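Record pair follows.
FIRST:
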Amino acid sequence: MALLQALSVFFLTMTTTTKQEQEEVIVKDKKRKYDISLYKRGDLLEVPRTMFTHFGIYLGNDRVGHLIPDILPLFTSDRSSIDTMVTNLRLILGAITKVASVRVDSVEDFAYGGDILINPMDGVCSRQPYDGEEVARRAEKLIGPVSYSLLWYNCEHYVMYCRYGTNMSFQTFQFCKAVRKIFCSKRFSLVSALIGVAIMFYLQTDPFYTLLPTFFISFHIWMAS
C-alpha cells in the first residue's frame, strides 16, 4: 500500500512538470503555428516520431481524437492532471502496462511539436475512405478507455477502422516482417541448434531432455525459413 501511495505521489508530481514541458514545447515551436484551417472534420492526421508514427482523426474546432497509452489514470482520477498533454514517459509506461484510451486533444498537444501529414493513408490503403462526417462519428464513438496492444490494437488500428473500416496497422506489419526475417531464418536455425548443444554440455543434462527439444525447435525454424 505504501508503495502504491509513493508511486501515486511520483506520478502526480510528474504531471506538475508536464505543464512546464508543454510550455517548453510551445515556446520551442513558437515559429511553427499549426494552421487548423488546413484540416477538415474526418481527416486522418499522421505525426512521424523518432521510433514510431502517431495517428489521429481530426474532429473539428482544433480537436483531435487519438488512441494513446497513458499510465497516469492508474494512479489518479483527477481529470485536470490526466487531460494534460501526455509526455513520452507517461506514454511508454502506459504501453508497458497496457493502459490506454481514445482521448481528445488540441492539434498542438496531439502533434507534440512534430510535423503533421494529412490523409497519407489514402494513397496506401486499398479501401476508399468514408465520408468525413462518418469518419469523425466513428472516432467519437470510441472515446474512452480501450484495450491496448502494441502489435494488435494501437493508434493506427484505431484510425484505420475509423476512416477505412479495417483494423490493420502497416507499422505492425513491417515490425512482424522484420522479426520473422530475423528469427525464421536458416542462420537463426543453426544458431539455436548450437545454443541447445552448448547448454546440454554446460549443464551436463540428459541428452534426451535437451537434444530432442533442440532438434525440434531448430527443425521448425529451418522449415519456416
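SECOND:
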Amino acid sequence: MELKAVIIGLILHATVFVTQGQVADHAVVLASASESSMYVAADAIEVTNQIDVYPNPSTDFIIVKIDNSTLKKVVFQLHSMIGNTVDVKAEEVGKNRYKIDLRTFSSGYYFLIIEDEQSQFKEAYKFLKK
C-alpha cells in the first residue's frame, strides 16, 4: 500500500511515496493510527547550504552567510536587472561569511548568483542597492 509522506513544518516541491517502515531521504517515516497518511520526523532532515544575504536593502556592502556549507570554492556574480553581469570579489570575514563591496554600483535591484562548480550548486538572491 503506497501512502503519501508529509514533512511537518516544511514545504516540498515533490511528493514522495513510501510504505510504512521505509526511510525517505534519511528521515524516519511514521504511520498514523489510521494508516491513511504518514509523517516524516522533521528533526531527522539535515538542511545544507542555508544562505542569508543581508542587509537588504543595502547601501555600501552585503554580507553572505552560508550555514551548514558543503561548498568548496564559492564564486559570486552580480546581475543587474537589465542583464549586465559582473564578477565580484568577496572578502571572507569569518567562517562561511563573505562581505561584498557595493559602493561602486548604481542604485537598483540586483541578483547575487552564488555558485560552486564542484558541487554543482547555483542559486540566485535578489537585493536592493540604495
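COMMENT: Confidence is low (pLDDT under 50) at residues 1-38.
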